[in-house]
């Protein structure tokens, strides 16, 4: 992990609360927190609006765990001057052959082999990602979930706590996998698997609800 300046958190929800102490444990200094609805300090850090950043330069990190919201916020003009370093927790076991995109987070007790992570991927803690696997931009992998070798997960996915993506499985873009679900077969774009054994269903658009 390259040297990171005081890190600006983008997003003031529960994930910001989770990550402040964890990142401080990795020796990273946390600065201000940006949120569209500031409601007072978070663990002593001032919270201000995202637009108040106004394109100024800063090392920044997206703390937003919802892939759709995170992608939208990342495109905000107020953040155009930000740099997005990746954050890799010191006690991870990481292969030198792993490729890690900007703004990604590899949390405590995670194992990375020769895998490829896109931009703003979050591996929260106790994750294992197997050889030759790929995880797309803005995908969130919750604690304890594992991705086996040769699996591919698309962009904008949310993989629940303790879920398992088996070897060679392809998970399309914008998919949702529930907690402790084992995904044994491919999932098309925009599908969900929320029960065990996994039943893969299309997600409904807002207009269909």
UniProtKB/TrEMBL annotation:
Keywords: Transferase. One of its GO terms (molecular function) is transferase activity. Belongs to the transferase hexapeptide repeat family. This is Transferase hexapeptide (Six repeat-containing protein). It comes from Methylorubrum salsuginis.
């Amino acid at each position: 992990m390259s040297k990171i300046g005081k890190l600006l958190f983008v997003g003031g929800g529960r994930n910001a609360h989770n990550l402040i102490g964890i990142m401080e444990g990795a020796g990273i200094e946390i600065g201000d927190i940006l949120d569209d609805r500031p409601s007072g300090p978070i663990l002593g850090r001032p919270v201000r609006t995202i637009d108040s950043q106004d394109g100024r330069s800063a090392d920044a990190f997206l703390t937003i765990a919802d892939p759709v919201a995170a992608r939208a916020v990342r495109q905000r003009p107020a953040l155009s001057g930000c740099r997005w370093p990746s954050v890799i927790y010191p006690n991870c076991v990481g292969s030198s052959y792993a490729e890690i995109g900007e703004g990604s987070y590899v949390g405590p007790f995670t194992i990375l082999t020769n895998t490829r992570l896109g931009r703003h991927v979050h591996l929260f803690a106790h994750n294992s990602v197997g050889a030759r696997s790929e995880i797309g931009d803005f995908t969130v992998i919750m604690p304890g979930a594992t991705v086996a070798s040769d699996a591919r997960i698309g962009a904008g996915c949310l993989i629940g706590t303790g879920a398992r993506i088996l070897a060679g499985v392809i998970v399309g873009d914008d998919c949702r996998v529930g907690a402790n679900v084992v995904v044994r077969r491919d999932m098309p774009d925009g599908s969900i698997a929320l029960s065990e054994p996994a039943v893969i269903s299309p997600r409904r658009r807002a207009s269909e609800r």
